[in-house]
Amino acid sequence: MEEQEEKETKQPRHQDSGGNHTRRNNVRKAFGEMMLRPLQWLKMLGEELHWSFVLGVVIVYGISQGFGVGLSRVSTQYYMKDVQKVQPSQAQVLIGVIHFPWIVKPLWGLLTDVVPIFGYRRRPYFIFAGLLGVISMLVLSLHKSLHLAFALLSLVAGSAGIAIADVAIDACVTQHTISHPSLAGDMQSLCGLSSSIRALIGFSLSGFFVHLAGAKGVFGLLSIPASLVVLVGILLRESHVRNFAYKRVKEKLVDASKTMWTTLKCQDVWRPCLYMYLSLALGLHIHEGMFYWYTDAKEGPSFSQEVVGSIFSVGAVGSLFGVLLYQNFLKNHPFRDVLFWAQLLYGMSGLLDLVLVLRINLKLGMPDYIFVVIDEAVSRLIGRIKWMPFLVLSSKLCPAGIEGTFFALIMSIDHIGLLSSAWSGGLVLHILNVTRTQFDNLWIAILIRSLLRLIPIGFLFLIPRSDPKLSILPSEMLRTKKSNDILEQENIEMASLVNSID
Q1: What is the pLDDT of residue 475?
Q2: Which residues contact 447 (CB under 8 A, 6 or more apart)?
Q3: Per-residue pLDDT band at 442 (split at 50, 70, 90)
Q4: Which of 13, 269, 312, 488 holds its CA 20 to 30 A away from the CA of 364?
Q5: What DSSP element (H or E) covers 236?
Q6: Half-sphere exposure of 286 (CA within 13 A, CB side)
Q7: Where do Basic and acidic residues bias regions lie (predicted)?
């Protein structure tokens, strides 16, 4: 009885004195769980897909493509404008040419899938891609007065290095998508997060570096991400292909091409590919016209290098939030539903540039920088949400055995769409007489672009409405063909540096 009375007397005092403490503990616990959730997610991916896959994605997508592209975009734009002194329409076309290696990605995919070098299918291509990037960036940085043709050739070579490394890591992504279809959205989120976070860092530093070292100095810094791709090739551990019949390479290339053509003829494959091309081609890329207007002292706001870099960095934040929104709220929704709203908002967001160029924002009392930052963040966020379903869908359209090749084929179709958008945008800028100093008709180009972005909504019937967690291809296309000269996909992993030294 005494013990019971003692408990009864202590309980109210404990509740009164510890209530606030309990609530604070709950808040701390919830905050701790929220902070640990990304780490738990990465741990889950590492356990399900192997830690080496996560590391490879971070290096190639994050550092090489994300951070590297973040630096190279601003430096290339200033290099074309200030060093080579080309017109915006011409720069628009040249930027498209620089991305030409991405159009021939199926060639790199065929080589990595079918033609091993010294018995390895991935490692030599990573090393070659990294060395190509290092050499091309050093040429651009160290040569004092490089002719435009040779400068363009070096930029294309650097782009080719990134594209080859991209094909190799894409093969790993697609093979895991086949073996773990329910994690397809998570894998693309990992790729998108790695790229967006590093792009944020790259864009944040790009303006500062361009101001400090100039565009050519930034090219020298870009040799560092390329050298890390070489490191990926050194650390990569994969099964050695023994007794490979190099005399049968031609036969295997023909067989792989036939498999690609058979898959591409499948209705569930060519219809989404056609929609992806139309959606990208009708986007009408006029970024170079906007960039020249940004930096113009008379007609535009005359942004400095640091300001331009900060604008793009905020855009990278918007892209990052787009990945997070897709990962947490949209990845389980049907592709067609997500793309409908993304495409609609993508067209409407283009009108923000119209408000800016017509100086309506100043009449509303909003400074140029604040409005441009909002514009860039919103546009990149919507663009990333629109791009994520494309990546997930593309990874689900790849047959077993030629995953890297076919994913590269789909991505090349997408890049043909981007190239069509860039060249058509350059043509529009040229017809409307948008030059280095004349921007009177830039608003017409923006209006045309916004209207064209809405047209793909009418072609959404080409996109399947299936569950994004399920496979799209017939089961017979997802069966890996066994052969004594084909590398077992599951054996690809990255060896630790200690094991490499041993």
Answers
A1: 64
A2: 351, 354
A3: very high
A4: 312
A5: strand 236-237
A6: 33
A7: 7-16
- The terminus-to-terminus CA distance of the chain in angstroms comes to 71
Cα separation of 409 and 388, whole Å? 17
Q: Tell whether the torsion through CA atoms of 204, 208, 209 and 214 is positive or negative.
A: positive
What percentage of the chain's residues is helix, strand, coil (to nearest 5)?
80, 0, 20
Rg, the chain, Cα only: 25
Phi, psi for 239 (deg, rounded to 5): -65, 140
Amino acid identity of residue 436, one-letter, is R
Largest CA distance in the chain: 98
In the predicted model, what is the mean pLDDT of residues 447-471? 86
In words, the CATH class of domain 49-240+252-501 is: mainly alpha
- Tell whether the model's pLDDT for residue 223 goes beyond 80: yes
Question: What is the Cα–Cα distance from 415 to 254, expressed in whole angstroms?
Answer: 24
Q: Which tens digits make up the pLDDT trace of 64-81?
A: 877 777 788 888 888 888
Predicted confidence band of residue 482 (pLDDT cuts 50, 70, 90): very low
Q: Which helix (H) or strand (E) holds 193?
A: helix 184-221
| Alpha-carbon torsion angle 291, 292, 293, 294, nearest 10 | 50
The pair of three-digit structure tokens given for residue 324, joined into one six-digit string: 């997070």
Gap between the Cα atoms of 307 and 157, Å rounded: 29
Give the C-alpha separation, 173 to 54, whole Å.
10
The neighbour count for residue 391, using CB atoms within 10 Å, is: 23
DSSP 433: T
Which amino acid makes up residue 404?
A: G
d(CA 236, CA 265): 35
Domain regions of the chain by residue span: 49-240+252-501
Choose among 259, 268, 492, 284: nearest CA to 394: 268
Between the alpha carbon of residue 458 and those of residues 277, 394, 415, 425, 452, the distances in Å are 14, 21, 21, 22, 11
Under 8 Å between Cβ of 340 and 276: no
Q: Is 121 exposed, middle or buried (0-12, 13-18, 19+ CB in 10 A)?
A: buried
Query: How much is the pLDDT for 492?
Result: 41
